[in-house]
Amino acid sequence: MSAHGVPPAGTGRDAQAAGAAWDEPDLLRDQFRQLLRYRWLIALGIVLGLLGGGWLGISGGASYNATTEITVRPLPIDGSGERSAPGDVSMGSERRTALSSVVADRAARILRTDGSRIPCDLQVTNPPETRMLRFSCTAPGAGAAARAANAYAEAYLDNREEDAATRVRTMVDAYEKQRAPLLKERDRLAAQIASSSGDDRALDGTVAAHSSAVSRIAELNGSISDLRAEDTTPGRVVTKATPPAAPSGPGLPLLLGLGAAVGIGLGLLAAWVRLVFDPAVRSPGDVVRALHAPVLGTLPHGRRARRDGNGRADRRSLLAVGRLAEEYRSVAFRLAYDETFARRRRILLVPPRGSIATALAASVNLAASFAEMGKEVLLLEADLRTPSLTERLQQADGVQPGWARAPGHGTIGWPAGYRIPIDAGESGVFDLVPGHRVSKVPRALTSSAVTQLIAHADDRDAVLIVLAPAVLGYADAIALIDRVDCVLIVCDPREVRRDDLARIRELVTGAGGCVLGALLHSEGAGSEPRRGARPAGTPPPRGPRYAGPHTPEYVREGVGLRVMDR
Question: Which residue spans traverse the membrane (predicted)?
Fold first, then answer.
């Protein structure tokens, strides 16, 4: 397997089967590269993340946090009215009390504002293993946050002190109610003792009852005195809130960084969703998996075709030079050493859909490359709907006309019964059977004359290249597959669907052929003009024209169409 994960040509159908089995790391790398094709989605996610982070930084960056800490002192009487044990404080209950609406109303009165409109976000926490409460207030202003924290702490302490005083007062009132009848009983018994007639036995009982009442009254008085002497201080402020010098929370740079990170994640997620539901082919790996055949070559992005004086494209720009020509040569060599192609030496070039402009250029350049290898090449233009090769290629003068050894005329006007020798510059000469508009295309493609032309590949060192219209547009290519076994798909991976390639593979294999591979291109590839080519309509340069393979180099260099720079 190559560095790009594409199996090499030259192994026949085994290479086609191996193309579908990618290693998982290669597949993951290929999918990640495909995600990067949706850079606009990733960029959109980053922009949205930065906008969100900037909005949070601007809207929340002006918030200030101030903290007040207090210690909670145990109260002498708990909520049930019983005396509490020393040091016994339920900090969970005290924290809930600090967050209650009662304390909030008191804080609002301290701040002289409505309780529901205090511009503060309050948090009350209890540090572990302590009897402390920490009041943290977050507000738009530094002073407002400090005032709110101090007001909440003061309100909590006031509420707790008032609650303690209320409990003491309630207990005192309860003891006083118990003492009131005892006082009356004591006074009655004292009066009875004073008015006693001397009955010692009755007097002793009255004195004992009086002593008991006095003792009980003394106990209640002692309890009341103890309650009134209790310290009801609820606690004290340890740390008083002061206006903070800087806003709280993450700053604008950190929020922008977090927003960018979240935006990248959202962009990658959106790109992945777009990739999952995108039926188009986005990489050579998709082509390999859909066709079960290797990618034989990728044409480099060529320059735009030359324009003549009228603004029309230069029609003499089919033959490539430079990197583009070298890529065609590479594809030709890979085909020459492919076992499946070597058995028959016939190849059918077809695009999936649409225009055949790039397939047409590929057929001409592959023919020139095979001619350079010393092969006897016949290019058959089977496009009988929009033929154009005759007027776009230059005939080689001085070469024996091909019609002397051509088959007979077709029954309906095509093939025309002759071959045109085409000047391929330094690569040599190849024969062309040009297309011709006919009224009955299916009959022309299946005629015996076409069969005789296809049999040209059976000769030694002969290669047949057939150019046909889009295989999914017309059935012309399918009609030729039974005689031209090997199919080369020429496509732009950005403009073809995966199911289109799978459909082509099914049609080709169903008709008895095999897909050799694919030749990928992008918009503009295959139309690179020849260096020094003259515009259409310009008279040819003076001097002798190409007169055959034995003509001196300096004669051939100035005329015709050169394919490659040696």
Answer: 38-58, 252-273
| Average pLDDT value over all residues in the chain | 76
Q: How far is CA 191 from the centre of its chain?
A: 102
* CATH number corresponding to 62-239: 3.30.1890
d(CA 402, CA 395): 11
Q: What is the pLDDT of residues 268-293, one digit of tens each?
A: 888 888 877 777 777 788 888 888 88
Phi-psi sector, 263: left (phi>0), alpha (psi -120 to 50), beta:
alpha
The residues near 266 (Cβ < 8 Å, ≥ 6 apart) are 45, 48, 49
**Beta strand 235-239 with 376-381: parallel, antiparallel or unpaired?**
unpaired
372-429 pLDDT, tens per residue? 988 888 898 888 888 888 778 877 765 655 544 444 444 456 776 567 888 888 888 8
Give the whole-angstrom CA distance, residue 366 versus residue 361: 9
Contact residues for 311 (Cβ-Cβ < 8 A; gap 6+): none
Q: How far apart are CA 351 and CA 347, in angstroms?
A: 13
Boundaries of every domain in the chain: 13-36+282-530+547-556, 39-59+251-275, 62-239
Per-residue DSSP letter, 25 = H
Look at the alpha carbons of 68, 71, 72, 76 in this order and tell me if their dihedral is positive or negative. negative
Contacts of 208 (CB under 8 A, 6+ apart): none
Element (H, E) at 164: helix 142-194
Residue 143 confidence (pLDDT): 85
Distances (CA, A) of 260 to 38, 207, 245: 17, 94, 28
Evaluate whether 12 touches 340 at the Cβ level (below 8 Å).
yes
**Is 13-36+282-530+547-556 CATH 3.40.50.300?**
yes
CA 471 to chain centre: 34
Lowest mean pLDDT among 105-119, 156-170, 264-278, 375-389: 105-119
464-481 residues labelled b (16+ CB within 10 A) or e (exposed):
bbbbbbbbbbbbbbbbbb
How confident is the model over 34-45, as pLDDT tens digits?
777 778 888 998
Cis peptide before 119 (omega within 30 of 0): no
